[in-house]
Prior knowledge:
Layout (H helix, E strand, L loop, with lengths): L4 H4 L2 E3 L3 H10 L1 E4 L3 E7 L5 E6 L8 H22 L4 E7 L1 H5 L2 H15 L8
Parallel strand pairs: 1-4, 4-5
Antiparallel strand pairs: 2-3, 3-5
Amino acid sequence: MHATKDQQSSLTQIKKRAEFLKIQGKGRKWVSHGLILQTAPNEAGEKRIGFTVSKRVDKSAVRRNRIKRRLRAAAADVLPAAARDGHDYILVGRPQTLVRPYEALCDDLRWCLRKMGLEQGQNQ
Length: 124
């Protein structure tokens, strides 16, 4: 399952540190084997996404960038169809993100959404 370009364009990227801190402070989080999902409702009514991988996960910038690319790909495939509008999502990389199979990473993201009650079509 790969998202179309039209579906991918429905995601706006979060880039400012203040927005990350706001979501981290007032939002909720769920931890899975391959990633951590942090989320909070937003006022804009759109799906926004951010990615972060700290030096604690891996000292090598090359491996941290690879983790971010894997998270971006999983988010592009899963979030346009499965996530709710009006929420901000931050995907935090973990050491397992680098070696976990791609389908398992996508399943982790879907599992986090389901456990938080944020899967499209679920009542909240």
